[in-house]
């Protein structure tokens, strides 16, 4: 039975550790969201400044060039406004992708991981509660057995004392008296002995069930919990890496497109 405590302690510590991992991912999602929103806010502010500068310029040549995205043949004549505007739009798009990554991490990974870990922890607690109830029942039976053993020993001592008195007495009257008492005490001693034998059998049965039936099953359940913990965490981390890789691939593609300005 002591081995179950070791296994339970291992599973409990691992579930806490991976619960902390889920919290780490949740904090990453929050950081991605804050960063993305801040980046979009800064980018939009810069775009407003660009628009103000462009609107104050004479003519419409440069503005038309920025809207069409065309470049003059001579690189030295390229105005910075179209490039700056496109980079600002790229940064706004990057910020939006960070917000999307945050949403994906929160809804598709963190929530499912926390739900799975929470469910496994509930199962672990139920197994532990059953184990404790089983030990309490076992200890109760052991206590009754020990009580019956003590009672049997007491009745045996009383019978032995009565028999010694019977052996020492010489009076016929006293012999009848102690003989009657001895028979009475012997009956009680035998009854106590039978009860003790029954309690020993019951204690042995519950010991057998505890050590060789229920505890191994509970340990198997704990192993299943640990295996499921590994499987669900691996699944969620792979999904996280795939999601993040997909978002980052889009960022790189957008950056390469922007660099063509």
For the structure shown, list the relevant keywords.
mainly alpha; 261 residues; 92% helix; rod-shaped
Protein architecture, described:
The structure is a single chain. With 261 residues, the chain is mainly α. It contains four helices and no strands. It is rod-shaped, with a radius of gyration of 41 Å. The chain starts with a helix and ends with a helix. Mean pLDDT is 88; it is low at 60-78.
Rg is: 41 Å
Q: Structural class from helices and strands?
A: mainly alpha
Task: Specify the helix fraction band.
Answer: over 70%
- Low-pLDDT runs of 5+ residues are 60-78
Number of helices, where a helix is a run of at least 4 consecutive DSSP H or I residues: 4
The largest pleated sheet is described as: none
Fraction in beta strands: under 5%
Distance between the termini: 71 Å
Q: How many E-type strands?
A: 0
**Element order: H for helix, E for strand:** HHHH
Q: Note the overall shape.
A: rod-shaped
Overall average pLDDT:
88
In short:
The protein is 92% helix and 0% strand. The protein has 261 residues and is mostly helical. The longest helix has 89 residues, at 80-168.
């Amino acid at each position: 039975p002591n081995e179950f405590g070791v296994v339970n302690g291992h599973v409990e510590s691992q579930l806490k550790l991976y619960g902390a991992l889920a919290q780490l991912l949740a904090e990453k999602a929050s950081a991605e969201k804050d960063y993305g929103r801040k980046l979009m806010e800064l980018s939009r502010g810069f775009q407003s400044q660009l628009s103000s500068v462009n609107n104050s310029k004479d003519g419409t040549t440069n503005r038309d060039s920025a809207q069409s995205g065309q470049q003059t043949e001579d690189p030295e004549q390229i105005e910075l406004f179209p490039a700056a505007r496109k980079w600002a739009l790229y940064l706004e798009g990057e910020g939006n992708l960070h917000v999307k990554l945050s949403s994906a991490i929160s809804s598709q990974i963190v929530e499912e991981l926390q739900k799975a870990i929470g469910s496994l922890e509930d199962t672990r607690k139920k197994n532990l509660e059953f184990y404790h109830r089983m030990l309490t029942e076992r200890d109760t039976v052991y206590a009754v057995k020990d009580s019956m053993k003590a009672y049997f020993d007491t009745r045996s001592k009383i019978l032995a004392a009565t028999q010694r008195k019977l052996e020492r007495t010489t009076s016929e009257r006293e012999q009848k008296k102690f003989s009657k008492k001895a028979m009475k005490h012997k009956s009680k001693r035998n009854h106590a002995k039978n009860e003790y034998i029954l309690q020993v059998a019951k204690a042995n049965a519950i010991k057998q069930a505890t050590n060789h039936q229920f505890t191994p099953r509970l340990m198997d359940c704990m192993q299943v919990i640990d295996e499921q913990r590994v499987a669900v965490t691996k699944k969620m981390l792979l999904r996280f890496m795939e999601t993040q890789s997909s978002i980052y691939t889009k960022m790189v593609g957008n950056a390469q497109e922007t660099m063509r300005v």
